[in-house]
Amino acid sequence: MRLAVIGATGHVGGYLVPRLVRAGHEVVALSRGEQRPYHDDSAWSEVGRRRIDRATAEAEGTFASQIADLDADAVIDMICFTPASAASLVEALRGRTGHLVVCSSIWAAGWLREVPGREDDASEPWGEYGIGKRRVEELLAAESARDGGLRTTALRPGHISGPGWPVITPQGNLDGTVWERLASGGDVLRPGFGLETLNHVHADDVAQAFELALRPEYRGSGERFTVVAERAATARGLAQQAAEGFGRDAVLRFASWDEFAASLDPADAEASREHLSRSQAMSSERARAALGYAPRYRPIDAVAEAVNRLAELGRLDLGGHRLDAERVA
After folding, report:
1. 268-325: pLDDT as tens digits
2. For the chain, which terminal residue's Cβ has fewer other Cβ atoms within 10 angstroms, N or C?
C-alpha cells in the first residue's frame, strides 16, 4: 500500500516508518522540518520525505487537501489534537483514502471508575488535551458509522517512552534529576503513599499497534484501542525498580501535596498533578484480541532505554552508572 504518515519523525514515527517499509509499503513521511528521526534505521533511505507545517497549512486552509492529493491508500496521523483538525482531514479524505488511523491517548479516558480501564468504560476526560483527544475519537467513530463514511481507527498510547527524549519519572513529571538521585542513592520526594499508577509504553510497541491496524487481517472501523505495556507501574514501584536497576535501594520520602509541589519548579508540579491525579491503569486486551498486539517492553525496560540514552547524550549525569533493567525481576 501507499501510506502517508503525518508527524513521521516523532517518537513513534521513528519506529513506525521503518516497520512499514520492511512490511513492503510505499511510505511518504510528512514532518514540519528535516529533523533526524529519534530511531536511526537504514529503511529511511527508501522513504519519500515531504515537509509541511501543519499549523501554517491549516491556517491557510490547505493542509487537508495536500494530504488528500498524495493519493495514499491509508493515512496515519500522529499529531491530530483537535476536532477541527480531524474534521477537516476526514472531509478531504472521504472517498479518496481507504483508512485513516489516528493517534489518540489514554488521557481521552480521564478518571477511571474501575481498573484496568477499558475503551468503552464510562469516564470523564479532563484538561484541554484529554478532552480534545476524546472529541477526536468521537468524531472518527461517528464518521465511520455513517453511510459512505471514511474508515477510521484510533489508537490510545500510554506514556510514550524510548531512547532520545525525557520520560515520565516516579514523580509524574519530566525532571531528569529524579533519575540522577536514584542513581546516586539520593532521596526522592513523593506525595501521598506513591500508589498512583503510570502507564508507560515503548514507542516501538506503539508502532507495532499502528502497523497491525493497517494489515488486511484487521477489517474493523470506527474502533479505538488502548496501547500500553502489559502492566502499569505504581509511582513508588517504578522508583524502586529504577533504583534496583542502578544496584541501589530507593530512598523515598513522603509528603503532603503542598509540600511536594512547593519543592518543584511550577511546570514540573503541574505535570505531576496531571499524571498522578489521573493514575491510569489501562487494559490493552481489545488490541490484543482484534489486532494481535503483543507488547515487548515492560515499563522499566522502556524507561531504562530512555534514561541510559539521555546519559550517553550528556543530558543526564548518572555518575557513570547505567540503569540495567535485567536486574529488575
Report:
1. 999 999 999 999 999 999 999 999 999 999 999 999 999 999 999 999 999 999 999 9
2. C
Other Cβ atoms within 10 Å of 33 Cβ, number: 8
303 and 244, same domain (yes or no): yes
Contacts of 259 (CB under 8 A, 6+ apart): 189, 191
* Residue 3, φ and ψ in degrees, nearest 5: -120, 140
CA distances from 257 to 28, 260, 261 (A): 47, 5, 6
286 within a domain of the structure (yes/no): no
Count how many domains the chain has: 2
C-alpha cell at 155: 489508537
- Residue 284 falls within a domain, yes or no? no
* One-character DSSP codes across 63-76: HHHHHHTT--SEEE
Range of the domain at 47: 2-160+201-227
- Which residues of the chain fall below pLDDT 70? 34
Query: pLDDT tens across 192-229, in order?
Result: 999 999 999 999 999 999 999 999 999 999 999 999 99
Q: H helices within the chain, ranges in order?
A: 13-22, 54-60, 63-68, 83-93, 127-145, 177-184, 203-213, 235-245, 257-262, 266-278, 285-291, 299-312
The CATH code of the domain that includes 8 is 3.40.50.720
Does residue 256 belong to any structural domain of this protein?
Answer: yes
